[in-house]
Amino acid sequence: MDRIIEKKKGFVFKKHGPYVAGGCLLLVLLGWVIFGNHASTLRVSQEELTISDVSRAEFKDYVRTNGQVLPIQIVQISPEEGGIVMEKVVEEGTMVHKGDVIVRLSNSNLDLQILNAEAELAEKQNLLRNTQVAMQQDRLNNQTEQAQLEMDTQRKRRTFEQNKRLYQEKLISKEDYVQSQEDYLLSTKKRSLVSKRLKQDSLYRTTQMDQMEDNLQNMRRNVVLVRQRKDKLEVRSAIDGELGLLDVELGQSIQPGQKIGQLNDLSDYKVQAQIDEHYIDRVRQGLIATFTRGDKQYQLQVRKVYPEVREGKFRCDFVFKGERPENIRTGQTYYIDLELGQPEQAIIIPRGTFFQTTGGQWIFVLDKSGSKAYRRNIRIGRQNPQCYEVLEGLEPGERVVTSGYEAFKDNEVLVMK
Fold first, then answer.
1. Burial class (CB in 10 A: 0-12, 13-18, 19+), 345
2. Please, are residues 59 and 346 in contact by the beta-carbon 8 Å criterion?
3. How far is Cα of residue 37 from the mean position of the Cα atoms in its chain?
4. Which residues pair with 288 in a beta bridge?
5. What is the dihedral of CA 293, 298, 303, 309, to 10 degrees?
6. Cross-strand pairs, 269
7. How far is CA 7 from CA 4, 10, 13, 241, 252, in A?
8. Which residues pair with 273 in a beta bridge?
């Protein structure tokens, strides 16, 4: 006879346990999602980090750069006349005075031009002299003709006056009287016309002579200039200074205007620096810079800012303001601090390699216990070789990680160990 087995009432572990455990796990996961901290963390060694303090202090607005000493002026050597190098009178590094010969050139074509110009001048001079002789002869002939006409007019006037009296006394015929009158009037008109012609010829010949004389003067000046070109085959120094470069060899053909060297004006010096293009809008003429040489500090002043940017940098020329260093030499390098503005109170942090990763947009900030560092957005303003100016995101007294962030990747919390 079968026995009826009664069903057990209440909780049965084997049957309900898995469901209860799953529900609890689901509640735990839900609570972690809602209330938990999901920031990715990374355990780091505090000894490998550079931790700096955030402070309020005086921010000095300056930029540090390297400057090279150069002569105050560099004069290019470029001959006005081309030719073959016959002699190098001085060598590089020699001190020269204004007017000293540096290089001698030879130019056979220029010699031929001088001979042609002189021959043309001699020909023009002979032509002018011949013309002057011919004009003088014409002038004498004209004066003779004019004298003869005046004499002829006087004679015919006397004949006319005599015939007039004789005709009035009825001693000669009317025809003789009228003919003498006509001869006199014709001679008078002829003398007047010849006088006008002689006057016009004189004016024309005078103008012609003036033009020929001007042409002759121009030719004389041309000969002088051509001879001066001969003198320019001797390349001379334009200033007192040092021959810094002379790039020629004996027998070399030099073209007019070709750069063959340079002269360094050592009466004073300037310092030329390459500055990051980030500062090009802030660097202007008149700004003051300083550098230290030995135990003394010297001042410089911006004289010229070059607008051209190459490879992320622009050039800037400085001149000395006040005392110069002893034994200053071309090519020396000075480490210059260029002041861009007046010092001001600001929140600052020391410079660090973190900036290369974050671009100054965020930084890791330690909590009060110093056991964790959290990522925080900040805004960096100006910077100098020692520190950054913080405009937003940090307060004085906080501590930040300023060493490199390359190993932190996208972690938002650093746990110190």
1. exposed
2. yes
3. 62
4. 301
5. 40
6. 71
7. 10, 10, 15, 120, 122
8. 67, 316
CA dist., res. 373 & res. 367, Å (int) = 6
pLDDT tens across 181-214, in order? 888 888 888 888 888 888 887 787 778 777 877 8
- Please tell me the distance from the alpha carbon of residue 239 to that of residue 96, in angstroms, as a whole number: 8
Locate 367 and state its tokens. Answer: 């909590």
44: its two tokens: 């780091």
Instruction: Provide the pLDDT confidence category of residue 175 given band limits of 50, 70 and 90.
Output: confident
Cβ proximity of 416 and 373 under 8 Å = yes
- DSSP symbol at 324: P
Residue 263: beta bridge partners? 75, 243
Residue 21 is encoded by which pair of tokens? 């455990």
Q: What is the H or E stretch that residue 81 is in?
A: none
Residue of 238, 328, 336 lying closest to 287 (CA atoms): 336
Q: Give the other-Cβ count within 10 Å of 328's Cβ.
A: 16
- Give the residue among 54, 66, 67, 64 at the shortest CA–CA distance from 383: 64
How confident is the model over 359-417, as pLDDT tens digits? 889 999 998 888 888 989 999 988 888 889 999 989 999 999 988 888 887 788 888 87
Q: Which of 110-119, 149-158, 255-264, 274-283 has the lowest mean pLDDT?
A: 110-119
Token pair for 120 = 């043309």
Contact between 300 and 322 (Cβ < 8 Å): no
Please work out, in degrees rounded to the nearest 5, the angle formed at the alpha carbon of residue 297 by the alpha carbons of 294 and 303: 125
**403/277 Cα distance (integer angstroms):** 25
The encoded tokens of residue 87 equal 């002699």
297: tokens are 């500090």
Distance CA 398, CA 13 (A): 55
Q: Name the strand (E) or helix (H) holding 386.
A: none
360 token code pair:
């100054």
Identify the CA nearest to 298 among candidates 337, 327, 258.
Answer: 337
Cα(218)–Cα(220) distance, rounded to whole angstroms? 5
> Do 399 and 51 contact (CB within 8 A), yes or no?
yes
User: What mean pLDDT, rounded, does the chain reach?
Assistant: 84
With beta carbons less than 8 A apart as the criterion, state whether 254 and 82 touch: yes
- Separate counts of helices (H) and strands (E) for the chain: 4, 22
> What average pLDDT score do residues 342-371 get?
88
Pair of tokens at residue 295? 């135990």
